[in-house]
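Subject: complex prediction, re-run

Hi both,

The earlier run crashed halfway through, so I resubmitted it with identical inputs.
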Amino acid sequence: MRIEPLSQRELRSLEGELKRCYGIESLPKDLVFLAAGERKLKVSRVEVLEFSRTIRGVVNVGLYVVKMTRDGSSLSLEGSQLFGESIKKNLIELSESEVSAWMTGGPIIRTDLGDVTYVIAKFKNLYLGSGRVGRDGRVYPQIPKWRRVPENELD
Amino acid sequence: MSRPIELSDDLSGLMEGIPDMEVELYREAITRPLPECARVNTLKMQEAEVVQMLEERGWTLRPVPWARYGYFIDSTEGVGSSVYHMAGLIYIQGPLSMLPAESLDVRPGDRVLDLCAAPGSKSTQMAQLMENRGVLVCNEVSTKRIRPLISNLQRFGVLNHLVTQVDGRRFSRFASHTFDRVLVDVPCSSLGIAAKDWSLVRTYSKTVSERLSRLQLSLLISAFDCLREGGLLVYSTCTVHPLENEWPVSNLLEERDSAEVLSLRPSVLKSRSPLEEWEGLTFRSEVKRCFKAYPYDNWAEGFFVALIRRGR
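This time it finished cleanly. Structure:
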C-alpha cells in the first residue's frame, strides 16, 4: 500500500476550500493530510507515515476527515471534531432531540441558512460532521450508515 | 428455578482438574450477565464533559477503580446503540478487559504494537493513553476482522495508528527490537467470558486449548522479539485454562533468557496465584507474579495477564 501526503499545492487548495466553506483559517501543522481515494482525505502523524514505510502488510493509515465534492467539502464526525473551535461559519447548534434525529440520518429543519451547501452540526462541544443543506429547508446529515443509530432505539 | 448450564464432558473434566477452581461458583458466574461498562473517549472531549452529558441523560456512572476513563454504567437505554456510542464518545468494554492495556504503561510518544488487535478495544484504549501521539501499530491477520477494527479506530478518533495484516507469528521477522510496548491479547478458548455465549462451555473440547496453546506460545515469542531492550509486553487471555495461561508464559521464559516477569497484582481487584504445576506440567516459579482471576472472583470476566520486560 503506497501512501503519499498531499503536495503543497494540494494543501493550499484544501486550506482555501475549508476556509471558504467553514471559515477554518489554517490546517493543523503537526498532522499530514493523505489522499485516500474517492476524493476523500485522511490525517495522520509524520512519524506514523514514516514508520509505515518500514514495515510490511500495511492496509490502513490515518483517520478519515474530509470528502471533497464538486460543490463543497463534507467533514466526517472525526474531521469536524478535529477542527472543532476553528470552525467559524456554517455551524449549526443542535438541541438534544435534534442530536438523536441527526444520528439516525434523518433531516433537521433549518430555514435560515441561505445559499450554502454544507453546514456542520454541533451539540455542546461535540461536533457531529457535515450536513447537506437542501432547498426544502432541511439539513441532511452525512452520517455513514454504519454510524447511524437505529430509529427504533430512540425514545 | 432455571436449569444449570451444562458443561461439556471435556470442560467438566478440566474444571475438576484445576485445584483452585470452584465449579459451582463458576457455573453461577457464567449465568449472570457481565457488568455493563465503557470507557469515556478523551480523544474527543474532556472526561468530565462526557460524564456530565451522560448523567444529564439519566445514566448512572461509577468509575472502574483499575482503569483510567473506565465506568460501570447503569442505563435504561441501550448503551451499544446510543448516540454516544455511535458518535464515539464512549467505547463499550468489559471491566477486566481494560486491565491489560492499563498494565502496559504506554506513554505519549511511544512506539506500540497490538499484535492481535481486532476488534480494537485495547487498541483504542492505548491510543487514548498515548494521547494520540507516537505510533500505534494495530495488527490483525483475519480479513473478516480487519473492517470492524478500522471502523472502531475511526469512530474513536485514533489518528496515530496504522493497521497491518500479517500473521502475528511472523511479525518479528521484519520488526524485531522495534517497539517500546507490545500487547498480545491472544485468541483463546474464552472460558472466562462464557457469560456472553453459553455455547462456549457446552461445546468446549480440550483439543481447542491444546491447539490454541501452541499458537499462543508462537504469538508470545514473536511479540517478545518485537520489543526493544527495556521494553514492556503484556500477554493476556480471557480464559481459565493453565495450558493457555501459565504454560505459554513459562515456555517463553525457557526460550528467551532476557524475558523477566514483573509482578502484577492490582490491589483493587481480587486475584489468585497462578499454578506452579498442572497435570504433570511444571511451570516456572516467576509465573506466580502474573495476574489471574476467575469469573466469580470479581463477578466479571475471568482474565489472565502477564507483564513481561525485555532485559539485556
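The first strand of chain B starts at residue 37 and ends at 40.

- K.
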